[in-house]
Structure formats: structure tokens, C-alpha cells
Amino acid sequence: MGQNPVCIVTDQCPAMNQVIPMSFPATNEFPATKHHLCMWHIMEKFPAKLGNFICKETALMENMKKYIWSSTIEPFEFERGWKAVLKEFKLEGNRWLWEMYVIRTSWIPAFFRDKPMFGLMRTTSRSESENNFFSQFHRQTDTLCEFYLRFESAMDKQRNETARLNEEGSSALPAIVTGMFLEAEAAKLYTRPIFYKVQEEMVASVFEVKVGTNYAECSCKKFVMCDILCRHAFCALNHFEVVKLPRNLVLNRWSKNAKNAPSILKLFGVSEDLAKMENASLKQTNIWFNFQKSMNKAGVNIDKLNYVDKTIKQLSSDLGDDSYITKKDHLEMLMGPQPSEEITIHAPKACKNKGSGLKRFVSAREKAINKGNKRPRKCKLCLSTIHDARTCPSKNKACAEKDVEIEETDKRLITT
Questions:
Q1: Whole-structure pTM value
Q2: Which residues pair with residue 37 across a beta bridge?
Q3: Three-state SS at 32
Q4: Consecutive sets of 10 residues in the chain, 416 residues long: mean pLDDT of each?
Q5: For residues 78 and 64, what is the distance between their CA atoms, to the nearest angstrom?
Q6: 70 and 109 Cβ atoms separated by less than 8 Å
Q7: CA 224 to CA 294: how far, in whole Å?
């Protein structure tokens, strides 16, 4: 990718905890990759670590979630709330809760509110949903050719779904529920799922923000975390009668024209200053919006389209062809020049790893659940679940009565 991943979310796998800092350390060009833990996996462990009764029959989990899942509180507020809940339920001495508190900066949203896009990356559900999707097409025994054909089928399904959603988004606009001019503007810009998130922020827009005609900055930092304007910014923009969304507050990936936007591969030097790269990206986005606006004005008017075509050709001639990069040049910049001599590739040595089919470790909790789901064996004589037919008391009693009858019969025969 030309740089370290910004963030990697995993479960509490010890191997991942060791390998991620080693694989993506900080360098002169890039910061180290942030390793965060999946909140869902940790929350699932609460009943097993603390007991089902205290988690399901008390208000412990409800009080905990107010501080754990909230992304609008500061770190000191989380720490104060966490300690208050532990004191209320007398859990100050619990070792597992202490361990989770020690690593709180790796899974509590309050500690990474100022990190871009971290608000959308709390769990591993995204990668798990992709695994589930592709598992419907592939099998472990597929050959390379079968894998390729099945992969193409999976991608065709995703392309068809994308085309259906694009048609749905372009053919009709969602319902407008507020009186803001910005809501109608947002309905034209955002995709349908993102618009509903934006609309939710508009409906509940109350907060203190710094706002102008081309910027909005809120102390809740939702735009920094998720790249979606918060309800407080929409309230302030509406108060100042801003009727068009500032383009620097619209992330291109959320817009309907994202698939038509030019590729912005930063292949011109991965060590360039980050601020310059962000400014260049913003300028490219603004130019693309202006071009789309010009094309919409031209419509189907031949004279206007000829004028746009002539202007673009003149602009291309003025820019020159020195900056043109072929597909081969792109590949060489990414992976290095193509080798000129023959290379022999040997098959890798086989090794066993986490996904090699070894028997999975089953916890005591899972064993107890599986045992509870099994149908209990019943005695064939009395239907009791405590014993079987071999040790049934009814069988022993019947045998004893039969022995007594035989003994009495023998006595009568002898007397006769």
C-alpha cells in the first residue's frame, strides 16, 4: 500500500499482539500502526469472567456500557465512571477487570476520539462479514482455477448489488424530515445509508461549534473520527443560513460520484509532507466537483458540450504530457522494475499455523453449554434421568419379589 496501515482491529490474540508492532513499526516516513482490540469480543467475555447472575440480573452491564461504548466523553470521565461502577458492585478486586482497565487505551473509544475514522472501527465485524460472504462461494478443496471462477462469481454479485443501490439512490430521494435546506442538499450528495446517518445527526442537532461558510469544527470530534458531520455542526450551519455543504466537509468516498472520481494514488513520493498531500487531495476533490457542476450545466446542449471539450483539450495541451504515467510505470513504482533474467520460484515449506485444521481449544464454559444442550439419557423402566435400566431400583425390587415367589413355590412343592 506504500505506507503502514493506520489501524488494525483484532481480537485478543497473543500472536497478533506480538506481530503487528514488529511488522508495522514507526519509521522516518510513517507513524506506527495502531493496534486496537475488538470491543464486541471483550464485552462477550463479561458473563464468563464475572458470572451470569451479576451480568444479567443486575444493572452492571447497563451502567458499564454508558462509559465503555460512548465516544462523546473524555478519558477522565470514563475512568471516573469505570471506578464508580466497580465500587457500586464491589468489583474493585477483580483481576480480569483490572487487566482490561490496564489496556483501556486499546479498546475504549474515549481514548481515540481524535483519530480519523477510528469511530467506524470498533469491532472486527467488517472483515468477518467479508469472510462470511466469500465463504458462500468458496470451498477449502478448490483448485486455483476453481477459486478464480468462484471469486469472479462473488465479485459479479457485489457489482450487481452496487449497481442496484446506485440505481435506487439516483432514481429517488429519501424523505426529508427537517426544515433545513442542508438536508435536501445532503440527500443529493450522500449515498442512502450515509444520508440516514447524517439525517439522524440533523434531527438531534444541539451543541456548541465553531462555524463559518466553508468550515465547521465541533468539540464532539465526530467528523474527525467518522468523517461525517455531526448534529451540532448542522445546527450551526443552518443558523448561519448556509444552504450548500462545504466541499471540504464531504468525504469523496461517501458521495454518489465516488466511482467516477479520478484515482488519487500518491505515487509521487511516499515521504512527502502529510499536510501537502492533504491539501493536494482537497484541491483535487474541489476541482472534480467543479467539473461535475460544469457538465451538469452543459447538459445535452451540443454547443456547450463542444465548448467544454475544446477547453479540456486546450488545458491538456497546456499541461503537457511529461506527467503521464503508463500502467507499466505504475506497477514498477509499486513493486519495482521487472526482472530481466529468469527466476526460479520454489514451493514454500509446509507449516502448521492457526488455520491449519488443528483441534480447537474448547473452554470450560463452552463445554458446559454443549453438555446442557444434550438430551439426557432416561431409564427404560421408570424414565428417571438419574440411573439407567441396569441399576434401576424398580428392576432390583422386581427381581427380589420374583425370588420370594420362587422360594414359596418350592416350599409348597416340598410340603406336598
A1: 0.51
A2: 10
A3: coil
A4: 84 90 88 89 90 88 90 89 93 92 91 75 82 86 88 90 84 82 86 87 72 75 80 81 79 71 45 54 74 80 87 82 60 63 70 58 77 78 78 72 62 60
A5: 10
A6: yes
A7: 30
